[in-house]
Structure formats: C-alpha cells, structure tokens
Amino acid sequence: MRLRLLRIRSRLLLALITFAVFVLIFRLTLNSRDESGHKKEIVCHHSPDSRSKLFELLYRTKKALDSLRVSYFLCYNSLWGALKKKEAFPWLPYVELCLLNEEISNFDETFVFRTFKREGLLIEYSSSDGVYTVTTFNGSDPFAKLIIFEENQVINQYRRVGWKNRLIPPDSCSLIHCFPPRLIEKPLETVTFMGVELPVPREEIEILKYLFPNDWWKDLEPEECKEKENLNF
Questions:
Q1: What is the pLDDT of residue 120?
Q2: 10 Å Cβ neighbour count for 69?
C-alpha cells in the first residue's frame, strides 16, 4: 500500500513538473514574437534615413546568403509587408527571412560569420530561439532576423529550431510554427521587397496562417500608431 502511494505521488510530482515546464516554455514563446528578445518603444514611422539603412542592410544580407548558396525566403511580418505594399511596415526597424537548418548547418559558424563580415555585417545567433540577428558593426537599428526552420520527418512539417522550441512536443504546431513542406518547394517565385528581388513561399499568404496561427487575419498596425493617426487626423 505504501509503495503504491509513493508511485502515485511520484507520478503527480512528475506531472506537476512537466506542466510547470510547459507553462514556462509557453510564456517564453509568447514573449518571443519579437525575436530581438527585448521590448522597445514603438516608432510608428521610421525616418527615410532609417529606411535607406534598412534597404542597404537587406541588400548586403542577400549578398551574404547568396555567397553561402543557401535557400531563404521572406516570412512573418516581412512577407506580409511584401504582399501588401512591397515594403517593410513603417513601424518595424527590421526585416525577416527564413532559412533551412539542413543547409545552414553544413557550414562552420566561423565561416558564416566571416561571410557576413565581408559584407560589413555582424551576425549573432540565439540558440534558445534559433534566430540569427544581423546588424552593422555599430549594432544599432535597423537589423535583420534570419529565422531557422528544420523538417521534422515524424510529422512531415517544417518547425522552428532552438532549444526552447525543441523542448516543445513536435505536434504542438501553434507554438513552434509548423508549416507543410509544399509551401517552400522549389522553384519559388520572387517579389520586389524594398527594391530587392527576394523569394517568397508558395500560395501567397498560406504560410502566414501557420506562422501567426492565432491572429494572421488581424490588422498588424500597433494600437499606439492608430491612435496617433487619429489624433493627427
């Protein structure tokens, strides 16, 4: 009888620990919608000079990725911007490109860093989120996010990498942004985004239903910016 009670208590303790871990991971995942890892005051309209620097950063990032000969495509907010207006949204100081882990992992990290350095760029990797952040050497805005996905053969879906995402069960797709491989089958079409020709996933907005599963249909403009526009009007 005592042994049975111990087993029950052990199972309850394990269940509580597992639940606590998943709550922590879920909170971290929700807080990482901005991959930069910290919250900033929203600037509703970045200056023309900032937009020019963002274009230059995007152009150099594309050159570095082309030098590595890896696949990449617009995703997340940048894909929305490309499909809606062929530009980055005015309140965002960054661009987002998605890469495949099976390709980028073929290179030593030092080689990747040197490739970007040749273009005058600094690249840093977040092992928790599976995201490279690309900046100029002064480290200020604007910046680029290179978000890494890998194919999971068990569920036949692409999913986010990073230790935080790997702790989540592979079928928890709303948390790790799974999407079907057909959406990135080659060849991919290209669109003009900020004056640069870049690949985009198939079926237009379809991938955004997986990347933003809870609000892909909503207006993206921050409430603070809407309020300022109403005041100015």
A1: 96
A2: 9
d(CA 180, CA 157): 5
Provide the β-strand partners of residue 124: 133
* Cβ-based neighbour number of residue 203 at 10 Å: 12
Question: Looking at per-residue confidence, does 41 or 115 come out higher?
Answer: 115
Taking the alpha carbons at both ends of the chain, their separation in whole angstroms is 75
Q: Residues in the chain, how many?
A: 233
Q: Which of 218, 211, 1, 197 is nearest to 82 (CA)?
A: 197
Residue predicted with more confidence, 222 or 61: 61
Closest CA to 177 of 164, 186, 165, 167: 165
Q: How far apart are CA 32 and CA 146, in angstroms?
A: 14
Interval 24-73: pLDDT, tens? 444 444 444 444 344 457 889 889 999 999 999 999 999 999 999 999 99
In terms of C-beta density within 10 A (0-12 exposed, 13-18 middle, 19 or more buried), how is residue 97 classed?
Answer: buried
Tell me the two tokens of residue 226: 């809407």
Write out the CATH class of domain 45-215. alpha beta
For residue 42, the model assigns a pLDDT of: 81
Residues 6+ apart with CB under 8 A from 114: none
